[in-house]
Design brief:
With 455 residues, the chain is mostly beta strands. The chain is built from seven helices and 33 strands. The strands form eight sheets. The chain has a six-stranded antiparallel beta sheet. β17 and β18 form a beta hairpin. It starts with a helix and ends in a 29-residue tail after the last strand. The N terminus is likely disordered.
Length: 455
């Protein structure tokens, strides 16, 4: 055959020697090359003049892809990360989908490992498609389809504030409540993500196993946009206890409203962005016993109600008690959990500005109470002075009563966070983030990454 003649042409020169001649060819050589190409196509041989100089790729340079959980894995733990690793190459693309949505994740600097950022939804199917490029220049794609386990117990979670799209005051906290006791506080805290359009320093604080609160070191800057995401689904909060619900809330910090109410002078002063806009005559708790004494310190406006039923049974004096009362009030703004409101009190107008006669609330005239009700946001700081009863930090939203260093100690990760437009990082240094000043009583001395667990 002609192929045999070509392979031994020129005195029996090896065919490999001929193939290395990759320059311009004359008509006879072109004709012979066409015949060789046809023969190689039939026999499956390597093409002439390839980039490897005729050498076959070394199998040791081929990329190996490892995906965890593996394809067909039954009921993987939801708190374990999806992990993709490339041996002898780099990862080109990883796509993870569940219920039509993509799963967040990222590559390391060497581009040989990809991990999902957050924990996985329990009792859910996932599909992983990963492509990598080997040192031999060839790509490989691997697919893994698996499901996650259904938890023995589910963690109930609720966001007490703020609401999505709410405009709030400069003292506004982020308050999470859990229906079961959380024994792995650190795992829950790692699953929480914050960003803000203006930089602040803040920290999470556990009051108990079911109450977690974020507070800034100083008041939020005005006109700040904040996004809070809680990636709790799949977080292992305790033995057999997993979260199943996520939160994604955006809120805006509005104008600065600072309110001060003084028991001795019977006046309340309201400022708007540093300017006094109203002085309101008031009457506060008459005292005599603790429950009728207005608490002293930095409160936050918590909620509004119009009307609200005031019932002394909520503070331990039910029907039959000598001081029992049950009364409907209007334009009521709650400032604690011990029954204190700023509200309309037409019956005490004669005492407002001169005498304290209430059961602990801040009484105002109907006109002033209505104005105040319409004016305030949730999370506006209201400081009471002159009282003998101190507000406890866990009474309502009395969080600004705690010094900053003590607040940070309540973090399961023992850290504060620097929060900005690109997210949050651990504040390891003593640098204070720019912000507006908070109350003097709250000032102490100057002083991550997702919830999926590792291997």
């Amino acid at each position: 055959m002609r192929v045999g003649i070509w392979g031994t042409r020129g005195g029996g020169r090896p065919a490999a020697t001929v193939r290395r001649r990759c320059g311009p060819a004359g008509p006879r050589r072109r004709r012979a090359a066409l015949l060789l190409g046809a023969a190689l196509a039939v026999t499956g041989g390597a093409a002439a003049c390839d980039d490897s100089g005729g050498r076959r790729p070394d199998p040791r340079d081929a990329v190996r892809l490892e995906v965890t959980p593996r394809d067909g894995t039954a009921l993987a733990r939801p708190d374990r990360a999806i992990d993709v690793r490339a041996r002898n190459g780099t990862i080109e693309n990883v796509t993870v989908t569940t219920k039509g949505a993509r799963v967040e994740g990222g590559l390391n600097l060497q581009r040989d490992r990809w991990r999902s950022r957050w924990t996985l939804d329990p009792d859910t199917d996932y599909t992983v498609v990963a492509t990598a490029l080997g040192r031999d220049g060839r790509t490989r794609t691997v697919t893994s389809v698996f499901g996650t386990a259904r938890p023995e117990r589910t963690l109930e979670a609720a966001l007490a504030g703020p609401d999505d799209r709410e405009t709030v005051g400069v003292g506004m906290p982020i308050v999470l409540r859990f229906g079961q006791e959380v024994t792995d506080r650190a795992a829950v805290e790692r699953a929480l993500e914050l960003s803000s359009s203006k930089p602040v320093e803040g920290a999470w604080h556990w009051f108990d196993d079911q109450s977690l609160v974020f507070r800034t070191r100083n008041y939020w800057p005005t006109q700040t946009d904040v996004r809070f995401r809680a990636h709790l689904s799949g977080v292992r909060a305790g033995t057999g206890l997993y979260g199943t619900r996520n939160f994604d809330v955006r809120f805006r910090v509005g104008d600065q409203h600072i309110i001060r109410a003084d028991e001795d002078s019977h006046q309340m002063w309201v400022t708007h962005n540093g300017r006094l806009v109203r002085t309101i005559p008031i009457s506060m708790g008459r005292g005599g016993i603790e429950k009728y004494t207005t608490t002293n310190g930095v409160h936050l406006t918590m909620e509004k109600g119009n009307p609200v039923i005031m019932d002394s049974a909520t503070v331990g004096c039910g029907p039959g008690c000598p001081d029992y009362y049950r009364q409907i009030v209007y334009y009521a703004v709650r400032i604690s959990n011990s029954g204190e409101y700023v509200h309309s009190a037409p019956w005490s107008v004669g005492s407002q500005g001169s005498e304290n006669v209430s059961h602990g609330c801040v009484n105002a005239s109907p006109e002033n109470a209505r104005w105040f009700y319409d004016f305030v946001y949730r999370g506006d700081p209201l400081t009471v002075t002159g009282s003998s009863r101190e507000l406890e930090p866990n009474n309502g939203w009395g969080y600004w009563q705690m010094k900053w260093d003590d607040w940070v100690k309540g973090s399961a990760l023992n850290r504060s966070l620097l929060v900005g437009p690109n997210g949050s990082t651990s504040a390891r240094s003593a640098v204070q983030a720019p912000s507006q000043a908070g109350p003097r009583s709250s000032q102490g001395t100057h002083n991550g990454h997702g919830g999926a667990s590792g291997d």
